From TrEMBL:
Any one Gene Ontology cellular component term annotated for this protein: membrane
UniProt keyword annotation of Secreted present: no
Protein name per its UniProtKB record: Alpha/beta hydrolase
Keywords (A to Z) from UniProt: Hydrolase
Amino acid sequence: MAFVWKWTVRFLGAVLALSLLFVLYGGFVYRDHQLRDTEFSQGVSYLNIGPAEIAYRANGLDREGKTPVILLHAMFFHMGMWDDWAEELARNRPVYRFDVPGHGLSSLAEDGDYSLQSTVNALQAFMDHQGIDRAILVGASMGGATMFNFAAEYPQRVEKLVLVNSGGLEGHDKADSSGLPDGAYWVLRYLPDWSLNRFVDWLTADNQASDAFKSGFIQTFRNLDIRRGIIGRMQDFKSPDTEAVLAEIQVPTLVMWGEKNPQLPVAQAQRFKTLIEHDGNPVMLRIYQGAGHLLPAEGMDSPIQDLLAFIDQEGGE
């Protein structure tokens, strides 16, 4: 019996020592990095909207007389996911994109509110500060849920709506992540780079995000405030009665979806179309073969061409 206890204690001691080494090694290798005042923040402007300081980029501001486009990113990511599309869009009209509180270069929300309504309020405040009375709204995933809720609440401020693999439909109205512990962001710190790369590969299905995109994603994940913001948003993000909200949308809408979206099944695209095109409200649906959840970062040409055609067609300007 003494022999068993002896080796049990040795085994547990070895496990404890290895765990301590892992924590120390991971704490150094995956240590937190600041993002502001680095190459990552070049060309970024900041705007204080009360609960948070919003980081944003504005391009094509010399294209006067054109309705501006506002791009809103997906959860876990930041406004850099729109780099390629923003460049194309800004050739013809003003383009704005910003990081929601707790993501990218924006600060955490001082009031700790990361609910969907708080993000809708942030969009309203951003438009007010920029003097934008009416805009074309383009949102991906979480950004899509924000945009269609805004379009339903403030129809007079939306000319057209574009939903790119939008969240907010299946399950989100009943989802409850409030039990997620606040300290979960410390666990996220120890996710190795290869696992974050695999996460992006999984989201992009048959396509491949660029090395620069993956590097930027990993770089943001190595920031403590962003991990805290991600957990806060997962705890607070819950859609209202989505079907009722979609029925209130009164503007031309484009629904864009990856056929192999691993996170939000392609069947949801048709449901969005059906729920929005009430009473003849015009809705276009585009599904992209082999594409995943991150269309703006997947290097495909057809989605941006479809977006440009939809935005420039008559019926809004």
